[in-house]
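User: Can you fold this complex?
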Amino acid sequence: MRVEGLDTPALVIELPRVQANLKRAQAFADKVGLELRPHIKTHKLPFFAKMQVEYGAAGITCQKLGEAEVMADAGLADIFLPYNILGRDKLDRLAALHRRVAMSVTADSGETLDGYAGRFTDTARPLPVLVECDTGGGRCGVQSPREALELARRIAGAPGLRFDGLMTYPPRGKPAQVEAWLAEAVALLDADGLTPGRVSNGGSPDYYRSDVVRSATEHRPGTYIYSDRMQVGYGHSTLEDCALTVLATVVSRPTADRAILDAGSKALAADRCDAGGHGHLVGYPDAVVASLSEEHAVVDLSRCAARPRVGDKVRVVPNHACVVSNLFDVANLAVDGEIVESLPILARGRMG
Amino acid sequence: MRVEGLDTPALVIELPRVQANLKRAQAFADKVGLELRPHIKTHKLPFFAKMQVEYGAAGITCQKLGEAEVMADAGLADIFLPYNILGRDKLDRLAALHRRVAMSVTADSGETLDGYAGRFTDTARPLPVLVECDTGGGRCGVQSPREALELARRIAGAPGLRFDGLMTYPPRGKPAQVEAWLAEAVALLDADGLTPGRVSNGGSPDYYRSDVVRSATEHRPGTYIYSDRMQVGYGHSTLEDCALTVLATVVSRPTADRAILDAGSKALAADRCDAGGHGHLVGYPDAVVASLSEEHAVVDLSRCAARPRVGDKVRVVPNHACVVSNLFDVANLAVDGEIVESLPILARGRMG
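Assistant: Here's the predicted assembly.
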């Protein structure tokens, strides 16, 4: 089927662009000596997770236990879950995963660590735990290299756990600051005989500057596989690299300057980006996706020479690809305008 | 099970609040002589659609064919789809629905009308079509009462269609302007012998001022069933009326002033509202949900006396309930802190 034959709104992924994005990222990792551990939150598809490993990734990253369960079921064997896993239900699920694949997790507090230490006691198969470090991102993480050392010591002292290293989700645009933080922590750990096996950095925005973070041994980019308007704004890629689009129909042209699409915030999500508007209309570079309601996009055509008509199908590059693929149940893969595969987004909706 | 026993993040709906919100809205409709036709986009649950009809609604409103199909399957018999339905696939699905339940739709252009007229030709069972009117909302709709009349004439002239009236999604806070527009259109139609059977107004924000729109015969509020921070901001209700919350776990307390929840933009959505922040933390009125990443909320506790600890479960009233219930697969109904029912959100993800 041709892309335009899909009913709308529909998620369309340009397969050659995905492949090019993966190859480029893997080549960079190889060049600078980083292991690539892609974050599957962006696509939530075992198909692409396997492709990432085939292209050279050392393993994958998931953000949810439910995602990790889907990926383990699909045969992915090395899964990093950089999250504080808390509560009996989740610890039981983590234990079940740990029995069948190579799992690793993070902790940034004694409370989280106590949970792991209480649940994992098998000294023959310890759970690898990394210390999450707040290197300026202002989210989770210990606040100083000294605290990282203290938590590492507690992990190393728990019989069923193994201290595996450090992890950070870095602030954007500050790789030198991230490196300074991590280098200090690594030095403290080295001096204490706790040399980290892995130092895991993350994020797509600064991926192609991640060689500045020399202390890192691996990187966890997610959005790089699809890219989006946000990433284009960060200078990570161009609109021509964006592999994910939402196919939509022009359902109304109430005025000469206004078009309405059948894709609103329940298809494009309300995430904003510096470029303004709610998406890029492919083929109509001067169109502005001015506002979204739940099932409508209002497009300002006032600066456009060519203008789409009622019934036309158009493609929208969203601001943030990761939240968009979380809204659809099916991803349609396209090559040269032809749909070659329609895949259920198996890890979508795995909230816990 | 107690609410706190749910794994997080989880969608929790306070059933008594839903019932109170429905009763209040139905009582208002009865008092001012409006028919209530609730929009199910907010909950996407046949269970609540049936409850709305039991409480006195004349029928329901859906925004997607897929939603209407789910509701028809569940036994809902009168469904309004205030949308331009375009393309052969969708027209076929509309025809299948029209054969088994009382369907009505809208049009705001000749193109949409041509599609209906070409597909619906049975004079014994004409498709009811309303003309969508842009009364200032700036979305879909004909631009003037004169255009509404012209389109109504074309509907009336199509053998397989029936002109059923006017529909608008109004601009917020301008009921008098909406009434002026609709009254002028109704007068033109009356004079032409095309008296509208229904004049359908919509939206929760101005629902309790909808008696100002005297030309309207029915109203399609959606969010009123759950309410949310946006509606509270519009003066529609109070935080104590909000029935939908997201149960989340505090997964990190990196600093004295910061808490991290396991609910980010994939659970709370990135929609903003005038109150600022990304949700209201129940029991912590001075906490600010300062930012969201996909699976984390960053909460600023600096103004809080009491502060939640790692592992605590908390409830968040989101900015926009409709997009939140679109992110979860299951709605947990609660009474007095006890989960009485967990319902699959059957119409979620019905994109087309």
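The longest strand of chain A covers residues 244-255. Chain A touches chain B through 57 residues (CB under 8 Å).
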